[in-house]
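Board notes (copied after class):
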Amino acid sequence: MTDTPPEPDRVEGAPHPRDTHVLIGQKAAETEFLDAFNGGRLHHGWLITGPRGVGKATLAWKIARFLLATPDHDGGMFAAPAPHSLDIPDSHPVARRLAAQSEGRLFLLRRPHDEKTLRLKQDITVNEVRRMKSFFSLSSADGGRRVAIIDSADDLNTSAANALLKLLEEPPAGVTMLMIAHQPAALLPTIRSRCRTLRLGPLSAPDMAHALTLAGVDAGDPTAMAELAGGSVGEAIRIAGLDGLRVYGQLIETFATMPRLDRGRALALADAAGARGAEARFDLTLRLMDLFLARLARFGATRTPPPEACRGETDLLRRLAPDGIAARHWADLAQTLGLRARRGRAVNLDPAALLLDMVLKIDATAGMLAQR
């Protein structure tokens, strides 16, 4: 067993957000926060929202670094000029302390781990929020600001969420809380109403390529990766680590034989993803299959092809989803197969058999549509 506790806010294969000083593709959110700071409108609670993996945690750490390193701008004659960027040099003492996880004015609220097993707990408990409240009650070491990063607010259980709400209703002086939320609609409405929101969007293909390069990840075709990952760098890193572009290409090659399915290809696809020890490959294949069905339904409804995620995909979309009727069939099938996959996993069905059955149902739908 490793002696290092797992970090719930780390994407495997990528630097931790506290070590990522460059945020790609989210300039609007950076500018919005900086304008609020320079305008004297620094809210005590900020909700940083957007899809997973687009830089929410990186922005939170960047803001924390900025707040802890930047003195108040009092507008006096001898005051330092207003900052024009959230960037803080790596050599700054605050940046060094944050990197070493030794900054005494920062509290990181995230899922704790069991001290004996070093396994992560399922949610953030009320005891963790109470620890944060105690942290706020202590005097700041140098009389300056204090910052808390909550990563993520989605992980708060009911008691923890209510405890956090009380802190937001009566915020301690000099404290800024940065809450990351992947699904803000699921949070308590009263929590959302007491925070100012910074919304982050999916990355474009050029921004995706830049971000992956900075993370040291070779993802191949950045346009294809942006499509498969939904503009999420975190998801792109996971897909790249599992050779996801090749897996999606194999799916397209298999589906291209429909409605006269090449059973050999289908069996090989199912066996590779359903093999012992290939759980991550299985999960990825399910996600990519669902993504393909969603792209089919969207194309049939809009008649606008998305950027190709692999060669031959556009021609396949045109053939399998020629109109809105086909789009509805593919959308219904995606919902049905998603439910079937969840049930199959819950009762431990053989992964290869489950995948093969799903491919056969896609082939049956293709055959039905071809006969219209």
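Comment from the instructor: The beta strands are 45-49, 106-109, 146-151, 175-181, 196-199. The domain at 17-199 is CATH 3.40.50.300 (Rossmann fold).
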